[in-house]
Specification:
The protein is built from 13 helices and 8 strands. With 308 residues, it is α/β, with parallel strands linked by helices. Helix 5 runs parallel beside helix 6. The longest helix is centred in the first third of the chain and has 20 residues. Bound molecules: dihydroflavine-adenine dinucleotide.
């Protein structure tokens, strides 16, 4: 119930505007967001790299409504890719197609993300663009874009998709993407979806996560398992050990500021660990989805509201 309310609030444009402009809002978002500027993301990335963790940087923003906004977002990502390379960071980038203008003009979004993938593939060392998955209204289009980009030989291996285990269609999508050699990030899914398209009970979402995780780990392609769920992690570790899958054949991924203890312990055990680091001024929908996942986070946020 609370999850549904928080997810609905995450979609409110009015609240988003108020929250993102307020000083208090900026302070509380700091628990889950590196900061508002590119320099903040680079500083946090450097610290995480020094601690042995790799990173995926996300410039916060989604559902832009003008071609100009989309162009600016793409320009910031270009700068980000250049800086990560120039500073020798162990970090790739995560991007949302609606941030690149998918709602404005699909061709425009394709052009922007295509130029980012081309840039990533031409850097030395080469880098990688992960196309985040948004709500089910975008699933088909997002996967089509990733497939189309990956079909270009020079892009192979430098662009990847995200699959959400709550989606009923995901098993078929995973089979298709694996057939094309596309790298996948597996997560549970963060949006409110109707029962026709998504499993609702946590047990079903988790069971599908485990089923899909096994498909990924057996594929011989380098994938990411994005979760903070200790049960999912235990299942993945156990499967990898039983099937003799090397610890560097895949990576675990977690969000910045969440389960830092688990991030460290996995790394110490010799598993690969990547932290998803969001930065930027448009943090409101991201923060609200994190609160929806764990309403106890709302208490943390509330406490910060009253801290001097
Ligand atoms: P689950 O929600 O079942 O939580 C299991 C346990 O993890 C909780 O009991 C708690 O201990 C801890 N936990 C989970 N969320 C927490 C939080 N917010 N704060 C504190 N503790 C928390 N989604 C999507 O739809 N598209 C995408 O592209 C991505 N990308 C992505 C990248 C990365 C690196 C991660 C880690 C996650 C995503 N997600 C995502 C979000 C994902 O779909 C999902 O909503 C969250 O990861 C929460 O699910 P868990 O697997 O952690 O399990």
């Amino acid at each position: 119930m609370l999850r549904a309310v928080l997810i609905s609030l995450s979609e409110s444009r009015a609240l988003r505007g108020i929250a993102e402009r307020s000083a208090i809002g900026q302070r509380v978002s700091g628990r889950f967001v590196a900061g508002t500027e590119l320099e903040d993301a680079l500083r946090v990335t450097k610290n995480l790299n020094t601690a042995g963790l790799s990173v995926s940087v996300d410039n916060l923003g989604e559902n832009v409504t003008t071609a100009d906004e989309a162009r600016q977002s793409a320009a910031l990502y270009r700068q980000l890719l250049s800086e990560l390379s120039a500073q020798g960071m162990n970090a790739n980038v995560s991007v949302k197609l609606t941030h690149m203008g998918l709602d404005v003009d699909p061709d425009l979004a394709f052009m922007h993300v295509s130029s980012l993938v081309a840039q990533a593939a031409s850097l030395r060392p080469k880098n990688f663009v992960r196309v985040d998955m948004e709500s089910s209204a975008y699933t088909q289009r997002t996967l089509e874009v990733v497939r189309k980009l990956h079909q270009q030989p020079e892009n192979r291996g430098f662009v990847g998709a995200v699959i959400q285990s709550y989606m009923r269609r995901s098993e078929a999508d995973v089979a298709d993407l694996l057939g094309q050699g596309i790298r996948i990030r597996l997560c549970k899914g963060a949006y409110k979806e109707p029962p026709e398209v998504a499993f609702q009970p946590k047990a079903e979402v988790d069971a599908n996560y485990i089923r899909l995780m096994k498909m990924l780990l057996k594929s011989g392609i380098y994938h990411g398992l994005a979760t903070h769920d200790e049960n999912m992690i235990r299942e993945a570790k156990g499967f990898a050990i039983r099937e003799n899958i090397a610890r560097d054949a895949f990576e675990f991924q977690m969000l910045y500021g969440i389960r830092r203890d688990l991030q460290q312990s996995l790394m110490r055990e010799g598993w690969r660990m990547r932290v998803y680091v969001p930065f930027g001024t448009e943090w409101y929908p991201y923060l609200m989805r994190r609160l929806a996942e764990r309403p106890a986070n709302a208490i943390f946020v509330a406490k910060n509201l009253f801290r001097k």
